[in-house]
Amino acid sequence: MKQRALFCTFLFLLLLVNACKEATKQPPPVSIDKERRPNIVLIVTDDQGWGDLSRNGNKNLQTPNVDALAAQGVSFENFYVQPVCSPTRAELLTGRYFLRTGVYETSAGGERINTDETTLADLLKREGYRTAAYGKWHSGMQPPYHPNSRGFDDFYGFASGHWGNYFSPMLEHNGRLVKGKGFLPDDLTDKGLAFIEKHQEDPFFLYLPYNTPHSPMQVPDEYWNRFKDVDLESTYEGEEEEDINFTKAALAMVENIDTNVGRITNKLKELALEENTIVVFLSDNGPNGWRYNGGMRGKKGATDEGGVRSPFFIQWKGVIPAGKSVSQIASSIDLLPTLSELVSLDPKTNKPIDGKSLHPLINGTAKNWPPRLLFNHWNGKTSVRSQQYRLDHENRLYHIFKERGQQTDVSEHVPKMTDSLKRAKTAWLASMNPLSAESDTRAFTLGHPEATYTQLPARDGIPYGNIKRSNRWPNDSYFTHWKSIKDSISWDIEVLEKGNFEVTLYYACKAENAGVGLMLTHGKSMLGTRLREAHDPPLIGAENDRVPRGESYVKAFKAFHMGTIPLNKGRHPMTLKALAFSGKEAIEVRLLQFKRVD
Prior knowledge:
The protein is α+β, with helices and mostly antiparallel strands. It contains eleven helices and 29 strands.
């Protein structure tokens, strides 16, 4: 009997050891031909809510091409981003919580990813990928924060947080200012299609951060006419008032996005690249208005479910499962490690990664996926998401799987869970050490040795005296009301490497004010000139807006070549002054463009 008991005990221990080995086994690696790694197309929309898809129950619109990504790939039903744009972009590019990366705002320098962070594009370019970003960057404008300094060979779009006109607007191509062609998302897609055609024989990474449905609410008639006279069936379920026309414009913009997603996927099929291309689709935050969003609480800017839950679809035909749905929570911080593993790339970065590879969930090998917590933060508010619960910024607890709308606080019923999540929130915040407007000592940079062009937009400047911004939201603003020689505009500038720079001013000026004398200074460097040509264009934008906007209208500002200024390495204010007036005011200023000429 003793021998039998010993044998049973031994057998039990053997089975236990084997079970532990099975539980700790890593999922099998994806079989990749390193001579021809898979392409990646990463599509990120701007202010599109989880509910802005027909797949997610919205009966107002049809999004067959985006929905097909879910049908032909893997969808994550509990995928979370941050409440606003630049924080999410920082996370998906670095795999780290945005508060670690130098990002704390959406404008005025607070959107910049620190230069010691490694981006997904850096990693892929290092492995021989051709890389391009077409659209809204929103992670820093001046090199080395510019996309061309963050791993992208080619950039076309705008670096600010929002833009004032979506029809043939002023954009940039690798730092050089250019004019767009047609409706902006269509234009960005055209560039993406050309990039795919050009590099179909090479591994490529195409990042398409579309600018819609972010306001201003502009969309071609073809899409607007589908909604303008239609009664909406799926509407917002909360107490706040829905702006129906705003919703219609947003839905029209989303249908345009869907068309462009179809153009991309059709091109991959046409070139027989579908089986060697990973396509990812997500949004950067919750919806930018009160509209249908699956009954969730909150919208853009909120750390509740409605502000941070995003669609997330990943397709790789013939390699990852089709039509699979994953319920485990996941986040924008997981994108870099996931894509790195899928292309058999070691994510060697300068900093520890917060995210984790979702590959085991995608391929079905995650038999013992460990529990985890995800954190959302914005504007001093932090919430924590576990697999079942969300602790909101006021420490109210909600059982999300039972009640997605966060109406019933269950903190008193599960006090241990509440206390545990509160402690986790406190510990997470203590580990972040984020920057703020008060603690951020980074200057705006100029003269990066590997960059030809640098922009200094009004967004990053400081007005003095009578000068005002055209709008409280600075990203696409310009300076106006320049009425005195005591008035000035300055930028906090660090010149990284000395050189001679050709300066171009983008301005507007009424006829009676032409002839104003201007002086630009940086330390001991000076450039003086007289602007003699009037240029008084009308405001642009209202004629294309479907609903009134909150952002600044824009103008067709004129380029004026001020001359060449020698700049020495160092940090000083870059100051623009008017030394002589010919009328009652000076000029309106959109930006300064510097071109290295030595």
